[in-house]
Amino acid sequence: MGIENTQKIEILPVGSKTVDCAAIIQWAETWDWGVGNVVAGRLNVNEFDGWEAAIVLTVDEQYAGFCFLEKHDAWGTDLDPAITPFITAVYIDPRFRGRRLSEKLLNAAFGYARSLEFEAVYLISGEKGFYEKYGFEKFAQTVTRRSTTEPVYRRRIN
Ligand SMILES: CC(C)(COP(=O)(O)OP(=O)(O)OC[C@H]1O[C@@H](n2cnc3c(N)ncnc32)[C@H](O)[C@@H]1OP(=O)(O)O)[C@@H](O)C(=O)NCCC(=O)NCCS
């Protein structure tokens, strides 16, 4: 990928129920990560509302990165509902990995959350040492839908 590549980030307001997600659904179904099917299914039934958004990164008009900013992450079963918002389903397509595009994606999510006047964002992840690179700190832990325990991270954005 040379400097001539055009990277674009779009904040798709899926909570508005007006976004056509057909192409993203098709892409999510190809992901090498099981969460892709969950993302496709959730976009298909559009269970989002309010300010909730899908954040999509393209490189030369090809889908390269994805995440949601949403009120809660249903993967955690025992979280205080006052803890919000969550970044979920962070994904970089294998063709575009290894270039820190996840940092661009997360920065866009932080910017959007900041525009909504949140002072921090949260996420649940079992990945060790990844989100720490982007300023997240362990904040709590949660029992997941699979009855495992995973850390909840917080990133201050103010
Ligand atoms: C994890 C993922 C988003 C990283 O994508 P990326 O932007 O291409 O990341 P990069 O390869 O550029 O790595 C960025 C940095 O994080 C590190 N890193 C990458 N994946 C990591 C992981 N799974 N665990 C810990 N560190 C990781 C890299 O070594 C690199 O560190 P450095 O810049 O200090 O050398 C991508 O591999 C992916 O989508 N994987 C499948 C889905 C997934 O696991 N999502 C996150 C789960 S919550």
What brief labels describe this structure?
158 residues; alpha+beta; Aminopeptidase; three-stranded antiparallel β-sheet; 3 helices; binds coenzyme A
Q: What do these coordinates show?
A:
The chain has helices spanning 22-28, 35-45, 101-115; strands at residues 7-12, 53-59, 62-70, 86-92, 120-124, 137-143, 149-156. By secondary structure, it is α+β, with helices and mostly antiparallel strands. The protein has one domain (7-119): Gcn5-related N-acetyltransferase (GNAT) (Aminopeptidase). A four-stranded antiparallel β-sheet has the order 1-2-3-4, with helices on both faces. α1 (22-28) runs antiparallel to α2 (35-45).
What's the topology here?
Blueprint: E1 7-12, H1 22-28, H2 35-45, E2 53-59, E3 62-70, E4 86-92, H3 101-115, E5 120-124, E6 137-143, E7 149-156
Helix pairs in contact: 1-2
Bound molecules: coenzyme A.
Coenzyme A (COA) is lined by residues 33, 90-92, 97-102, 125, 127, 129-130, 133.
